[in-house]
Amino acid sequence: GVVEEDDLRSLMFCDFVDPKNESKPYVEVLNVDKLRAVVENYLDEYNNISKKPMNLVLFRFAIEHVCRISRIVKQPRSHALLVGVGGSGRQSLTRLAAYMADYEVFQVEIGKGYTSVEWREDLKKILRRGAEGSSHAVFLFTDTQIKEESFLEDIGNLLNTGEVPNMFPIDEKNEICSKMRQIDKTREKSKQTDGTPLSLFNMFVDRVRDQLHVVLAMSPIGDTFRTRLRKFPSLVNCCTIDWFQSWPNDALTIVARRFLDDIEMDDSVKEGCVEMCKEFHQTTRKLSESFLAVLQRHNYVTPTSYLELISTFKTLLGKKRSEVQKSKRRYEIGLEKLESAASQVAGMKAQLEELKPQLEESSKQVAEMMVVIEKESKEVAEQEKVVKADEAVANEQAMAAKAIKDECDADLAEAVPILESALAALNTLTSQDITVVKTMKSPPAGVKLVMEAVCILKGVKPDRIPDPSGSGKKIEDFWGPSKRVLGDMSFLKSLREYDKDSIAQPIITKIRSTYTSNPEFDPAKIRNASTAAEGLCKWVVAIEKYERVARVVAPKKAKLKIAEADLAVAMQSLEAKRSNLRAVQQKLANLQAQFTENNNKKKQLEVDVDMCSKKLDRAEKLIGGLGGEKTRWGKAAKDLGTQYNNLTGDVLISSGIVAYLGAFTSAFRQEQTSKWCEMCRRRNVPCSRDFSLSATLGEQVKIRDWNIAGLPTDSFSIDNGIVISNARRWPLMIDPQGQANKWIKNMEKAKNLHIIKLTDSDFVRTLENCIQFGTPVLLENIGEELDPILEPLLLKQTFKQGGSVCIKLGDSTIEYSKDFRFYMTTKLRNPHYLPETSVKVTLLNFMITMEGLQDQLLGIVVTRERPELEEEKSQLILQSAENKRQLKDIEEKILEVLSSSEGNILEDETAIEVLSSSKILANEIEEKQAIAEATEQKIDTARLGYQPIAIHSSVLFFAITDLANIEPMYQYSLTWFVNLFINSIDAAEQSDDLKVRLQHLRNHFTYSLYCNVCRSLFEKDKLLFSFVLCVNLLKHSHEVEEPEWRFLLTGGIGLDNPHTNPSPWLPGKSWDELCRLEDLERFKGIHSRFAKEMGSWKAYYDSVEPHNEKLPGNWEEKLGMFQKLLLLRCFRPDKVIPALQDFVVAKLGQKFIEPPPFNLAKTFTDSHSCAPLIFILSPGGDPMAALLKFADDQGFGGAKLSSLSLGQGQGPIALKMIESGQKEGTWVVLQNCHLSVSWMPTLEKICEEFNPDTTHPDFRLWLTSYPSPHFPVAVLQNGVKMTNEPPKGMRANIIRSYLNDPISDPEFFGGCKKPMEWKCLLFGLCFFHALVQERRKFGPLGWNIAYEFNETDLRISVRQLQMFINE
After folding, report:
1. Quick one: average pLDDT of 789-799?
2. Mind listing the pLDDT tens digit for each residue in 1188-1241?
3. In 3D, which of 742, 825, 718, 720 has the Cα closest to residue 778?
4. Which region among 112-121, 432-441, 699-708 has the lowest average model confidence (pLDDT)?
5. 756: β partners
6. Residue 391 has pLDDT above 80, yes or no
7. Which end of the chain is more exposed for a tag (fewer CB within 10 A), N or C?
8. Is the preceding omega at residue 1302 within 30 degrees of 0, hence cis?
């Protein structure tokens, strides 16, 4: 079969199809989906460990490149050259491929002061880390990092030989050799080197070549890439090239589907959105080609733009859906609450009628119950009195009993602790301790003494035993009974439970007389004999003491018993009376409860009646106050519903504008937007019929604030503002007229805006501070390249560190505030930002539009002519903005209150009060607003009288902005134009008749602009300028059609001419143009009628002055003056210039083809100390002599004028001269600025920093330069420009020679000894000089070897002539 591109793309090989396989075989990929899953897994792993995660969609196109890069870096000593535009994924895919191969990635960090010194240091580190490590590494280097071309020379050496010659000094080489020696020792014997420094360094180079893979990412756009490949062939010879083409269709589809997958919408709409995203991408690419062809402006469409489109769409759709749904719901709830209130009114009236009789009945019941309760209350009070008297008596008896009891307790308190301590001592005794005592054969006297006391207390009688002394008598012995007592199992228990309150008197007497009074009966002494006996001894002592106290207490206890008995009798009687009282009280309580219930019922009825009345009142307030809103809210809710349905298409188109159309001019943007709307409708993606970016994403209150801050009021500028507030990337504004600059400065003024330039020495420090503290930053005057240090900021490469969001800027890591805002502006008219820059920013074309300029100029002219009108208008704008903001806030508040009020709104008094007061305030503001709008309408009517001059002047401005396409030095700022306009308003002839006054203004300003611009134009361009000025005015008044104007410029566009030329005398080119002229409406039938009227046309063709001849046939009457120029172009192009002159004279006047002569004095009066005066040089013209003469005349000759010709190394000298001149008020002349391109940014910074307060008013900076694209735009726009060319024509040339120094000096002219001969010869010399110069126009026919023959030659010749005559 036929092998197609898709088959070749599907043929992929790699070694990571099976990540689990250790051997990593290099095989063909049979299943791309499986491979995608593997690569996505690697990507997830990478993102988990990386500080800079990559959000990549791995469609087939990306996987192809990952396979290629992976294959290249895994081959021995291989390097890659990745060619593609910025944002095509070269760096991301390289990082991923390196991670998959377990390679480390090295990249240099470019800072502000990065030079070849830092580059070499970075390169050394990379080479050493690559060689000294054990694994392979990738050195990723992009063309945006090439700050000096020498970097590429080092890369070339690295690719060729693995080293950069003479990069390592001796000490570092020794370190490397030392490290290599260590590595060398670990290798096999056969592979080891001989250990010499040379062989060890060679080993280092070999390891670099083996282990370090260089991956270069370069863009093919522009000539730079071609030049670099030619200069450094190793970039091609030593690298495998992988070319990143633009994304194929399948890639665009997959990416869109993947990102839009989780958006909630119908499948058919989602598919339509995917197709639309593709269409946006592809149509913008075509639009960019057209943009370049028509306006020579570059715009690049990259994959990053596509991803930006989709991510912006997702973000904005979610945000807008939520906003619209919330607003719609609020209106709906508001309407529901109003309808609910209206529906409740009738019901509430009926309820009120029903409640009133119930309330009367309830009031009657409550009054009756009140009488019964009063009667019952009296009975209860009497019974309470009796009970209280009895209670008092009982209380007295209770108090007496308590006093006796307290006395007993106080006496016992003395003995009880002793008793408790004795019991505690008993508790320490164990049965074992008792057994020890019991088993004593001959117990000590102390033990026996204690046991005797115990036996006596327990009432145990002693044994009678024979007297051991042998008296023959029987004596009492307690030891036998003691042992028996001790042998009792419950002995200790019996002691603890001993009845201490009923001890017989004889027993206690015996104990006191015999034992406790005995000095030996002391627990301390007894302890020596036995611890158990000690415890028993303590118990006996305690019992004796207790008994002593108890005896005293006993009578008191008896007394207490009698008192308690009396108390019990009294309490019994009291309780009976209390019981009776409780019964009566219960009865009263029941009555009271019933009364309370009835009373509550009555109160509730009162509340219900009151609430019903209030609700009726509130309902009337609500319906009266907000009823008028019902229709409007209903319409708003319906419109929001429609808007919600159309959001998908509207937000998609808006996202397309944000992502793709920022850099385009108004016409291109509008054309593309209409096409996109049509596409949406064709693909059934719902969108608004009249799409507008401001209606979809704009907020009227915010837009009014922007306009007040200086944003032009035209839709193009407002759209730019909306793009800035909705874009994810920071804005870079192309702002040649400074409109964006002014707006940003005013808008962010309150937030402490910091303004920086890349030329500032401390701009990085300022930026770091602002990022940390969330302060906005405006970066002004950037060129076509951005400082690489800004890259992390532009890409918003933030990461979490220590719980806070951080960003790395250069070498420092700083906290990143969410409030930080970053704006960039450039004054370049047509900057060429390569994709590497444009993908990182939101590029916005902020060039002023016709409508925006008209509005500004109208404001200016009315301010000068009718200041009171403009002041009132300005105040009304502010008042109107404030009124509308308040009305919006009030409506928000009303809807918020209605939607947040739960349940029945009529029950929420606070809410109704808030709504009522809000509506009253809203009505007052609406009345004020109506008055303000009526006044504003009157003022606008008066202002519109001045609109013609504003429109006319705007047309003139756009005529001069186009001049920069002819010559880069023809740059004019809006500020300069506005100042000239104001001067004309002040200088033009006054008149009370507005029409006459406007005519004076128009004539004066047109000619003033012509004169001011002419002095800065070369002779060749002066007529062209007059003609362009004239045509632009006629195009605006529709006297010249665009196709006719294009024909005059191009002669029409066509390839083959099917019509045969009928005449032998008319050149083929002229015949082809004549046939193409047929396409224009007014020239229908021209070529067919030409054959019939050939004789008349021949006469016209042969005429000496065809532009003054009448046209054949009826063409003379049929065609206007401009159309005749088109015919003249076809027949006699050599006579177009004189015809143009006649045309300009007829339309504008004779003075517009007679440029004012060079007048240095006049130019000087237009300048001031802060505006440089610029001579635009041309061959043959040297203004220095005229300037030196003028300086002498003004008193600034000699030491007051310092001059310097710029060149290498002259910058610092020039800087000192300017600083000195500013202080002392002298003149400084810097010649040949075009020769010092590198110093031009410094010159721009110097001129920008000129400050009238610190600059001497007499100071002037004079600059001379040949036309150069490198001359600073800001200096050109704000400076006073002049050309000093040799005049055209013999007469003008001779006059100029006589007006120039030294002939113009009367002293020199009259200083010759032979005046007659001198005058004749001088005229001859000037005539010869003019002739020589005029011949130069004819190229090699005039002079076969071109030579300047400039004024200096004439000046020297004149001086020599006088000298020869005088001699």
Report:
1. 88
2. 888 988 888 888 899 999 888 888 999 999 999 999 999 999 999 988 888 888
3. 825
4. 432-441
5. 779
6. no
7. N
8. yes
Asked whether 694 and 348 are in contact (CB, 8 A), the reply is no
Task: Please name the residues in contact with 106: beta carbons below 8 A apart, sequence gap of 6 or more.
Answer: 126, 129, 130, 137, 138, 139, 140
* DSSP-assigned letters across all residues of 807-873: EEETTEEEE--TT--EEEEE--SS----HHHHTTSEEEE-PPPHHHHHHHHHHHHHHHH-HHHHHHH
Rounded Cα gap, residues 1279 and 1274, in angstroms: 8
What DSSP letter does each residue of 671-682 carry, written as one string?
HHHHHHHHHHHH
* Other beta carbons within 10 Å of 204: 24
Lowest mean pLDDT among 586-590, 677-681, 1045-1049: 586-590
Query: How far, in Å, CA of 14 to CA of 25, rounded?
Result: 8
> Strand 1227-1231's sheet: what is its strand order?
1201-1205, 1227-1231, 1260-1265, 1173-1176, 1280-1283
3-state SS record for 1314-1328: CHHHHHHHHHHHHHH
Distance CA(32)–CA(6), nearest Å, equals 13
Owner of token pair 């440029």: 1155
State the burial class of residue 726 (Cβ atoms within 10 Å of its Cβ: 0-12, 13-18, 19+).
buried
Residues 635-654: tens digit of each pLDDT: 878 888 888 889 999 999 99
Distance separating the N- and C-terminal Cα atoms of the chain: 100
CA distance 217 to 215: 7
232 residue type, one letter: F
Of 358, 359, 330, 340, nearest in space to 908 by CA: 340
CA distances from 676 to 253, 310, 680 (A): 18, 15, 6
Q: Which strand ranges, in their side-by-side order, compose the sheet holding 812-815?
A: 798-801, 804-809, 812-815
Question: SS3 for 1264?
Answer: strand
Q: State the alpha helices, DSSP H only, in 143-248.
A: 150-161, 170-185, 197-211, 224-231, 234-237
Report in angstroms the alpha-carbon separations of 1338 from 51, 358, 1135, 1239: 68, 119, 18, 37
> What are the C-alpha distances in Å from 1044 to residues 719, 1090, 1094?
32, 19, 24
Cα separation, 700 vs 692, whole angstroms: 13
For residue 59, pLDDT beyond 70: yes
Amino acid identity of residue 1117, one-letter, is: E
**Cα 216 from chain centroid (whole Å):** 32
Q: Cα angle vertex 1134, ends 1132, 1138, to 5°?
A: 105
Predicted TM-score (pTM) of this structure: 0.72
Residue 708 near residue 881 (C-beta atoms within 8 A): yes
User: What CA–CA distance (Å, rounded) separates 969 from 1174?
Assistant: 10
Over residues 1068-1088, the mean pLDDT reads 88
What is the mean predicted confidence (pLDDT) over 874-897? 74
Cite the beta strand spans of 442-571 per DSSP E.
463-466, 474-477
Could you write out the DSSP letters of every residue in 1230-1246?
EE-GGG-GGGHHHHHHH
Coarse DSSP helix, strand, coil percentages of the chain, rounded to the nearest 5 percent? 65, 5, 25
Pairing of the two strands 27-28 and 13-14:
antiparallel
